[in-house]
Write a structure and sequence with these properties.
- The chain is α+β, with helices and mostly antiparallel strands.
- The chain is built from 6 helices and 4 strands; from the N terminus they run H-H-E-H-E-H-E-H-E-H.
- A 4-stranded antiparallel beta sheet has the order 1-2-4-3, sandwiched between helices.
- The radius of gyration is 17 Å and the shape is globular.
């Protein structure tokens, strides 16, 4: 399968089978996040692997979009390690770096036959509190993942795209 075929095949899975994710597959997904490019290769990402039912319940209590997944990757960045752009005061790379890391892991999950859903609708402070994260760590995204349930399917909007002329401009 080509990369473009993989990217088109992937969709946000919101219903998971009651099946454990093998450690080998989880390791490969985490490796994809580990090798993701980051600004100046500072690697500020911090990935918290949530597997225990107790901690998944804590997350579900503060975010309704965990979808009962057997694994939730909480993708964060360490603000003391991200790159600061001296030419653009206030710009720090952590959020972008975390997004790249999350994308790599999401696509690796798809390649391994797993499903995932990028979740960004949550109160980051509540997630950090539930996980007892250090103050210098910012929650960027959550990635519930596992084997898709038999009835899992993309939402209707998944295959609707604006015309390329609306998003690409040659200059």
């Amino acid at each position: 399968m080509t990369f473009l075929e993989l990217a088109k095949k992937r969709f946000s899975v919101r219903s998971f089978a009651d099946k454990t994710v093998e450690q080998e597959k989880l390791d490969m997904i985490l490796e994809a996040g580990h090798v993701a490019p980051t600004a100046c290769n500072f690697q500020p990402q911090r990935i918290y692997v949530v597997q225990s039912a107790e901690v998944r319940e804590k997350l579900a209590a503060v975010c309704r979009f965990t979808f009962g997944a057997p694994v939730i990757l909480v993708v964060c960045y360490d603000r003391t390690r991200d790159w600061k752009n001296k030419l653009m005061p206030g710009y720090e790379s952590g959020e972008t770096d975390a997004a790249i890391v999350c994308t790599h892991m999401m696509l690796e999950a798809e390649e391994l036959g797993l499903g995932a859903c990028w979740v960004g609708y949550f109160d980051a402070a509540k997630i950090a509190e539930a996980l007892e994260l250090p103050e210098n760590v910012t929650v960027s995204a959550m990635l519930p993942l596992g084997y898709p349930a038999e009835d899992a399917k993309p939402l209707p909007l998944h295959s609707q795209f604006r015309d390329a002329s609306e998003i690409v401009e040659y200059i």
